[in-house]
């Protein structure tokens, strides 16, 4: 069972109250059905590319989409039938449309960006984790895929500030999941703030798996929000090794907050090899780099 630690109401002991997670309706639940559905998707790289193109263009003729991806009309129609059956796209009169969902949250949208690359990274990171290992995962689209890939592991001890990740891994055989309380962010159901950090720093784990919004040659791992960087920093001294998962879209991206340098990163798992100044900086700090293989 997993739950949230929250400040106790008047009359409760120890200053904290434990509230088990429960399934609730869309918009009020800890984890949306869409996030779980996206992380469970089994799309090949071509189908993931279709999703990326449609998300950008919104509406295309089927023939135009086939030309864009340099595949036959029969192949594209077969892929579109599958994507339509999953409720991801809409087909009509020779066209295909991105399925707009007004209640899509930012995490759900990020999970569609370079989906194939992120899923490949997730599988590679999962291969680094053994049964019975203790791990920390922070919030993020790539780490949500990592949680899905870790479902085959048993007897994990998982520490996280992400309710979707906790929910994914709570059903694993023999797993123990510890979910930080604190201020809950609406778009990804992740907890932040002093309460979350104090909770996380109670643990010493084997592996910290940390996501990144950007990789800067001079500043290292970057985040878009200070609260995300604070959570990442808080666990660096509480893990024997640090793994960062980042797809190529994060290379050279300069974000608002510098989280930590490459000097504390043991392993970078990516979908392409970093080159140029970024590649030189990673090599200079003796960071091991593993390039994940795309699914066929």
What does this structure look like?
The protein is an alpha/beta fold and 296 residues long. Helix content is 35%, strand content 24%. The protein has helices spanning 33-40, 45-57, 62-69, 73-85, 106-110, 115-127, 141-149, 163-169, 194-200, 226-236, 276-284; strands at residues 3-7, 16-20, 59-61, 89-92, 95-98, 134-137, 157-160, 176-179, 183-185, 190-192, 205-211, 214-216, 220-223, 239-245, 257-260, 267-270, 288-291. It has a 7-stranded parallel sheet with strand order 8-7-6-11-14-16-17, sandwiched between helices. The protein has a 3-stranded antiparallel sheet with strand order 3-5-4. A 3-stranded antiparallel sheet has the order 12-13-15, with helices on one face. Strand 1 and strand 2 form a beta hairpin. It is globular and about 60 Å long.
DSSP helix count?
11
Task: Report low-confidence residues grouped into runs of 5 or more.
Answer: 1-32
Side by side, the strands of the main sheet go 8-7-6-11-14-16-17
**What structural category characterises the helix and strand content?**
alpha/beta
Share of helical residues:
25-40%
Overall radius of gyration: 20 Å
End-to-end C-alpha gap: 36 Å
Describe the structure in brief:
The protein has 296 residues and is of the alpha/beta class. 35% of the residues lie in helices and 24% in strands.
Task: List its traits.
single chain; 296 residues; alpha/beta; 7-stranded parallel beta sheet
Spell out the blueprint of helices and strands.
Layout: E1 3-7, E2 16-20, H1 33-40, H2 45-57, E3 59-61, H3 62-69, H4 73-85, E4 89-92, E5 95-98, H5 106-110, H6 115-127, E6 134-137, H7 141-149, E7 157-160, H8 163-169, E8 176-179, E9 183-185, E10 190-192, H9 194-200, E11 205-211, E12 214-216, E13 220-223, H10 226-236, E14 239-245, E15 257-260, E16 267-270, H11 276-284, E17 288-291
Parallel strand pairs: 6-7, 6-11, 7-8, 11-14, 14-16, 16-17
Antiparallel strand pairs: 1-2, 3-5, 4-5, 9-10, 12-13, 13-15
Helix pairs in contact: 3-4, 6-7, 7-8
């Amino acid at each position: 069972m997993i739950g949230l630690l929250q400040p106790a109401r008047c009359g409760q002991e120890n200053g904290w109250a434990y509230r088990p997670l429960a399934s609730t309706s869309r918009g009020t639940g800890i984890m949306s059905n869409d996030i779980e559905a996206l992380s469970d998707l089994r799309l090949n790289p071509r189908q993931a590319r279709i999703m990326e193109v449609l998300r950008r263009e919104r509406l295309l003729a089927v023939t135009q989409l086939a030309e864009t991806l340099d595949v036959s009309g029969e192949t594209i129609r077969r892929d579109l039938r599958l994507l339509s059956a999953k409720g991801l796209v809409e087909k009509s009169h020779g066209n295909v449309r991105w399925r707009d969902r007004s209640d899509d949250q930012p995490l759900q949208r990020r999970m569609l960006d370079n989906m194939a690359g992120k899923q490949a990274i997730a599988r590679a990171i999962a291969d680094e984790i053994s049964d019975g290992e203790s791990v920390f995962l922070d919030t993020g689209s790539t780490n949500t895929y990592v949680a899905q890939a870790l479902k085959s592991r048993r007897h994990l001890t998982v520490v996280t500030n992400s309710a979707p990740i906790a929910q994914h891994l709570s059903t694993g055989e023999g797993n123990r999941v510890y979910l930080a309380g604190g201020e809950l962010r609406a778009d990804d159901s992740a907890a932040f703030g002093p309460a979350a950090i104090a909770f996380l720093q109670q643990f010493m784990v084997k592996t910290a798996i940390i996501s990144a919004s950007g990789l800067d040659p001079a500043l290292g791992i970057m985040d878009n929000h200070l609260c995300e960087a604070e959570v990442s920093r808080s666990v660096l001294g509480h893990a024997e090794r640090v793994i960062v998962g980042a797809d190529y879209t994060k290379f050279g991206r300069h974000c608002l907050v510098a989280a930590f340098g490459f000097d504390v990163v043991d392993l970078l798992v990516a979908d392409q090899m970093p080159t140029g100044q970024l590649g030189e900086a990673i090599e200079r700090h003796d960071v091991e780099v593993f390039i994940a293989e795309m699914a066929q």
